[in-house]
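Below: protein 1.
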Amino acid sequence: MLWLPDVFGYAWALPQLIKQAGLEYFFTIKIGWSQYNRMPYDTFWWQGLDGTRVLTHFSTTPEANGYGASTYNSDATPAQVIGTWTNFQQKELHHNLLMAFGYGDGGGGPTREMLENIREMAAFPATPKICQMDVGDLFQAIESKAGHHLPTWNGELYLELHRGTYTTQSRTKRANRKSEFRLHDAEFLSSLAVMLDPDYEYPVATLRHAWELVCLNQFHDIIPGSSIGQVYLESQKQHTEVQQTAQAVQDAALSANAGQLSNPSALESTQSLLIVNPTSFVRDDLAFWPGHLAEGHCLQSADGTRMLIQPTADGTWIAPGVLPPFSITPLTEAAGAVPLPDVELAVSPNLLENKFLRVELNDAGDITRIYDKVNGRDVLPQDAIANQFQAFEDRPLQWDAWDVDIFFEDKMWKSEPASSAKVIEAGPLRATLEVRRRILNSDYVQHISLYYHSTRLDFDTTIDWRERHILLKVAFPVDILSNVATYDIQWGNVQRATHRNTSWDWARFETCAHKWVDLSEGDYGVSLLNDCKYGHDIRDNSPLGGVMRISLLRSPTMPDPEADQGEHRFAYSLLPHAGSWGETTIAQAYALNDPLIVVLPYGQASALQPISLLTAEPANIVVETIKGAEDGNGMIVRFYESQRKRGLVRLHLGFKPGSAWRTNLLEENQDALELDGNTVTISVRPYEIVTLRLVPT
């Protein structure tokens, strides 16, 4: 039983996760609190993104105070028992309903009065018959009696309430995202170290403790931003501990990896850099090294190819070339001139341009044009302003930290003209403008960057937030006509309407996404990526285009009067592309969130050989996790299909496996897989999540 009574909406991938974790049933009540529309069913099969179905029941017990359709804190009064039956919509299918009683929201449990009421109502003629029983037995009874007749809900379970929780307490949301990726990287590097170094011991207990802290801080009143201020002081300390732990694990793993990859015949004076690609995508983005080369020296790959670089005041940008997935690639410092790139990269206070994009700004710092030179089209509608900060009066009717209400757009302010705009990086690999502006009482600085080889336009932002009861969004009008937009979610993606035809569309004026959103026509589209934000809206589908917005900050005063006051840093990127979204959008979103890692080798400096731990094909497969097995037997690889395609998946391994097993989420072996040398092949369905155990020889 997955028992989640008070969670603010459920992602479409959840049914598959429920089943793969060995659970059978799902219970909640919170969807009954939706503002405008009631779910048509209270007992139903919930069908997930991949087709997995799970038996679901919503309690219909009314709140004692009359608010909302349901509660998990019943007083077990006759009125609530009668209300449970009265509210239930499917009386013709079954009569077994669940009423959760006791002071659960606070831990008080049931009282003697509640238990006495239940005893008396067991045979009281004026109320439905009531008894206590195991919740698993209840669901089994529902399934056996009505399972074949129950309707199916195929889609996410969106709560039409508490939309502000996607944004409130942004520091904690950023810390959560960064902690997830830091641990992801540490697990991969530790797994590689186990394969290379027989003396390296995978830090199971250390990583488990770190993940426990991350999960603790994903409690439904911490990560949504609906706790008191003291909670967030403690949360920040715990996230700092997580990231320090992840860094220590990463350092130890890299030390072990470098020791095994070293070339003993190399000169000790040779200095190498290690470039780590911690994702499942082939990467060619830039890597930043907080150091500088000696004068008259360059970096070269193992085959002698010299790398393009761009020195800055804080370090060096490196173009390391094409990097394989889950790999460590050495670059060696050598005497010789740095090659001069043959690139088109221009920058001025009013212009950023490479061979792919031309980005024009006015004197106020507004982006007035983005022209896609390859595809020959303007990304923005005529006379539109992109990267526009919009501040809205944000005073929800109830639950300050929790809610954004639909009337928030009634009062809006925009940024003042830029106080300065100057070039701080002029290539050859990256051009950057620094733009300083103010919105209401808050000053912010943006570094707007364009790379020599990409259509991705980055916005690295630092803001000193001094507002209360203000919601801050950034808007990108785009010349795209589509009645749906695509949103990245956990283990997949979902399409949502860009119009407000029905009350169901109207209610979704603010929705959740993870690393990216996209608006595409048949042959062209625009993706909007982020590194720590979750609230989004994409709307106004018309011949004039649509508006894509990210919610950046909120400043409620209850229950934390100091919520989000002070300095924040975040990044987002605009990515125009030919065709619909695909692996390019997903790969660039991962690149923004999980940059290439650049380190000096640990211990003796030496020339190293490159290695890749794992490569997955085809490109619609996203390997989300590589980690040590919890029982110490081999390595766990977890991936998912990302583009609604079925077929064969091939994993090419950088080591010789002795056996391969398909497991569930609990890492329990299910089916043995055949091996073809270093390749594992398995068939997948659209959006299927697959977990494998790989045991080396």
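Below: protein 2.
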Amino acid sequence: MLFAFQQQSRTTILMKIKLSIFALTIAYCQSVFAQIVINEGSNKNASSITDEDGELSDWIEIYNAGSDAVDLAGYSLSDNASQSGMWTFPHYVLQPGQFLVVFCSSKNRYASPPAITFNYAEAFTPQEGWNNHPAQQSFIWDGISNLVLNTCSYWSGGYTSNSIFNQTATDYVASVSSYADGGDYACYSQYGETSNLRPVLRINDVVVGQNDAQNCNTCYPAPYGNWYFGARMQTIYRAADLLAAGVTPGAIDSIAFDVAATAANYYDYINIQLSTTAANELSFEFQNTSGSYFHTNFSIAGTGETIYLFNPEGNQEDSIEISLQSLNASVGSFPDANGLDVLFATPTPGSTNNDTEPADGYTIQPSFNVNPGFYLGAQSVSILNPNGPLSVIRYTTDGSEPQTNSALYSGSPISIQSTTVLKARAFEANHIPGPSGVASYFIGADHSTPILSISTANENLYGPEGMFDNPFSDWLKSGYVEYFDSTDAHNLLMSQYTGMIMDGGAGGSRSQPQRSFRLKLADGIFGEAPMEHQVIPTVPYRNQYSDFYLRNGSNQYLALPYKDAAQVRMMCEGNPTYFSGWRPVTVYINGQYHGLYELREKFNAEKFEIQDNASRDSMDILSLSYYYGGILRAVEGDPQHYWDDWGYMSQLDATSPDYISQISSLLDLDNYTDYIIGESFMANVDWPYNNIKIYRSDASDYKWRFAIQDLE
């Protein structure tokens, strides 16, 4: 119904708008309308709005259309019509006429003011007993949100020991800590080591927790910790625990830590902050404590889906179908809150839709009279416009997306003299420009490998915002990719939009002139869909790829670029150890030859779904690398499952006759044996404190298995 409405004439739209305004007036008079509504949303947010992390995510906008303030506590959002309460709002008062942006990012956060600083102490020396820290301004707790305490302590004088704190044991991850040698670098850590201990805390005059344990003087969690030099720590205090202890909602003016012993350590400074979270436990990744937006625990599918709003009683209050074709478009009510959803070329997250003219629909993708492919000589290409006479075609040959100021197609054929990527797009008044027609023409080129032709705006690669000029960033950029096979005809097997992002570790992958990077074919914003083809001949069972890793040879760049790919295959093929399949591929970017790459599999959920027939919900895929600070982090799932199993295994009696069977219940010993043989035989000196991949799922009976990677 929505699509049909979008294709109707402007006259019909305006008539429906007038009728809807009339209907809205009647609804107000009868007081039967929904006061809290989903007013707008987008699943193609390429640059419209960023969250507090500077990242682009799907979003919706909640609007209070009534004349009274509404407490959103108990309202919930879901992408499943039969599942209310998937993500529930805490206490948050939405004023009449107020708009609220909620990111559908899967980050699962509550909005709150920026973290309140309780103490920024210079020349601080802990004392035994309660160490009190007053707030620089009162922190207002809503009685529903969980609290996150963030500390960073530093001493410039060198090694010393942590203070010892009375701690409470929990059955969940209550703390995450990181320390660094030689400076206060840990204060900026993204990842840390998890713990099920939580320092006993006094909030105002109420003690939260009991003395179940203590840390050692070089152990964490420790709010006053500088082993070595500096340390960062986060701890979660659940709302239920706070209420049970007697903490009342309202102002928090002081906190205090119960120090059991201290070496009278001197600190250059200790920074203590308090914020809120929607999460019930922490993870290896430190939470962002700026908290300026709400984030749901789900995202919107790249192909689109319907988002539902439920009231506190669990009844559906409103819904919106979000399925956009173009970047930075949105769908929403016009006028606000009338339930009649239209397209907007210019989204207005956080403000009224009434000042934005709706679009009639999308323009249709142009095509070409000459197919993309390989030719011996120049080609004359005409652009075919399937839209009406009021539309115009604009085109580019530099890889960028055609815009309103791009070259205007006059109707005469375009002469393609050398290898070129031609892009054409239709523009029409009151329409959102649809996808571009894209064709790569190779003139006089010949290759024995498959060819990837990638096109993107030059500023996505080079300059202050370019990923190639900022290789240690993880910025996601928009591109277009065509895949030609290795036959003499070089058949075109794929042509679609894709996301682009830097990839590889701290070796040569990111630092060589020919950068390693990844194509995210099924990215929800920039991508379209996985490639359905047997891309890698040595992986015959796989016919779907959502990601391609294009590797430059890393440490063997321009020397033995396929050394690692050959080594891992030799050590793994035919035995129970995982490795990344590959094939050589030639890459062109914006019509220019960019060299040979290894097209490699990623160790992601899709690989194990296909290779093992594992279910995604059962997976834990963990990675440890120098590039990410040597922390065991989750690519998929939760690293705590590994630490729980490690804790169990480390307590086993190695002399027991049942020892091997007990270990093998958690660790696939056939896999582990071949893994150790492979790493050792190749004399991998960049291991085992780097290049670790561990995985388990229902397909492995939840036994941990290792993957061999980066043997060069």
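The chain has eight helices and 45 strands.
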